[in-house]
Amino acid sequence: MQVKLEEDSLAELAYQSRLGLFASVMTDGPELLKDALHWALAQPDDPPEPEEGMQKRRTDYRILTTFGQSLKKCGDELFGTVAKPRSEENSPEIKILLLDPLCELSRLREGELKDNNLDIKLGLMQIFSALRDNKHVDHSLIPADLGDGDVNAYARTIQDLGKDVNVFLRFYQTMPSGISYFFKDLLIKGFTPFRVASKQSVWDIIVNHLDRDDDRYDHFSREFDRMWTDGSYTDPGGAPPSGYNIFISHTFPRGEDQHLREAGMIRLQELRSLIESWMPAPESDRARATSVVYLSADDYRNQDWTLRLPSEMRQASIQIMILEEGQDQLSEYQAMELGHFWVGNKAIIPLQIGSRSIDSEVLRAKSPVHWSGHTSDQTAMRALRERIFEALKKTPGATVFDN
User: Fold this and answer.
1) Is residue 77 exposed (0-12), middle (13-18) or buried (19+ Cβ within 10 Å)?
2) Whether pTM exceeds 0.70
3) Whole-number Å distance between alpha carbons of 75 and 83
4) Phi, psi of 172 (to 5 degrees)
5) Rounded Cα distance, 151 and 107, in Å
6) Are 210 and 57 in contact (CB under 8 A)?
C-alpha cells in the first residue's frame, strides 16, 4: 500500500483517521520514513498560536528505535540539513533514543535478528556520517582515530557534534511499546515482532489530533517523554542519571525477633529518607543526579525479592552496607552483595552500628563509618554524606550538586 503523505495537510489526515490512526501498511520502512520526513518539512516551522482548546502544532523530531538503521533513507536529510544551529530561529529539536548496545535486551534482539545484519554501531555510524556533513557543526570535535572507535566513541562524537544543531542522543534499557518516529505531528509507529526486523513488519501511520489529548499520538508521545526524562542516559552501558543508584544492604543476625526486625526497618526507612533529602530535586535534565534509594530486604526467602535483587544491584553505583551491633560475620546474602560491588569496582560504604569489628578484610579496608543507629547522629551522618557525594562524583553520568 502506498500512502502519499506529502499531499495531505494535517487537518486532512486527521479527518481521515480514527483516534489518530490513519493507516496500517506493509511497506518498506525506510522509504516510509523518508516520505514522512518530507511531509513534516512541508508543515510550518513557526505555526500560529492555537485556538482555545487546541494543542499547539509540534515542530520537533523524536526518534525511539532499536538500532537506528531504519534511518538510512532519511537520516542524511534529517541530520545533515534539517538540523540547524541552535542560535537560528525555528531550529528544530531532534531527540534520538537508541537501545543500549551493552544491555541484555540488545544482546537478545541481535540474536533474534542475526541474519539481518543489524548492528547499533552501523546505526550510529549513519547518524555520525550525516552530522559530519552538516556545515553547522564543529568538525574539530571529531577524533582523528574515530574510525577505529567503539560504540561509546561514536555516541560521544554524535553528542558533541549535535549540541550545536539541537541533536540529542541517549540510550535506554527498558522495553518500549515498539519503535516510534515522530516527525512533528505525524508518528510512524513500528513494532518488534519475534525474529522479524521492524522494517519488514507492519507500520502504523498515526496523526496528532490537535483538538484532543487522548488519541494514539498523545499516548505514544507521553511514552517517549517518560523514557527520555526518567529512563535514559548518555553513555552505552551506563546507568540512568536518576534512580537505582544507592543500594542499602542490611541483615538481622539475632534470629527471628519480630520487634527487632520492625525497629530495624523503621531505622532503615529513616535513613533512606535522610539520604534522599540530600539529593538535588530533578528540576532539569542536568540536575537529574541520584535521587532514589532502594532497601535490601532481610527476608531473601521471598521469591519476588530474590528475582529483583540482581537487577537492583546491577543498576546501583553505591552500596551502603549496614552492620548491626554485635554482628561479626556477613550473612550469605551480604557476602553475595559485597562480592558484586567489589568485583564491579563500585563504591562500598560500611555503616557500622557499635564498635565490634567485622570479619571482612574488604569492609575493614573501606574504613567503616561508626553509627549510633539514629539519624540524629550528626557526626556519622555528616561523614556518610561526604562519602556518598565523593563516590557520586566518580560515577560516570552522575551530575552532583553538593548543596
Assistant:
1) middle
2) no
3) 11
4) -140, 160
5) 14
6) yes
